[in-house]
Specification:
The longest helix has 11 residues, at 35-45. The chain contains 4 helices and 2 strands. It has one domain (16-65). It has 65 residues and is mainly alpha-helical. Strands 1-2 form a two-stranded antiparallel sheet.
Length: 65
């Protein structure tokens, strides 16, 4: 069975399970990021980004001095 071009385009635009879009604010709250780090991620990605990108680029500073 041949799929239509529109169906193929729709599938390509739909994020997969590894491409979940997250709110940067929610991500920062859940992972207890500093406000400065939250702002850095907002500048990089805007208000939403894929979970994979956020996990790869977030920096957590140690709470132990």
């Amino acid at each position: 069975m041949v799929r239509s071009l529109k169906a193929a385009v729709d599938d390509a635009e739909r994020p997969g399970s590894g491409e979940q879009l997250w709110s940067v604010f929610e991500f920062a709250r859940r992972y207890r990021l500093a406000k400065r780090e939250e702002n850095r991620l907002l500048m990089l990605y805007g208000p939403t980004a894929s979970l994979r990108d956020l996990l790869a680029n977030a920096r957590r500073h140690s709470l132990i001095s």
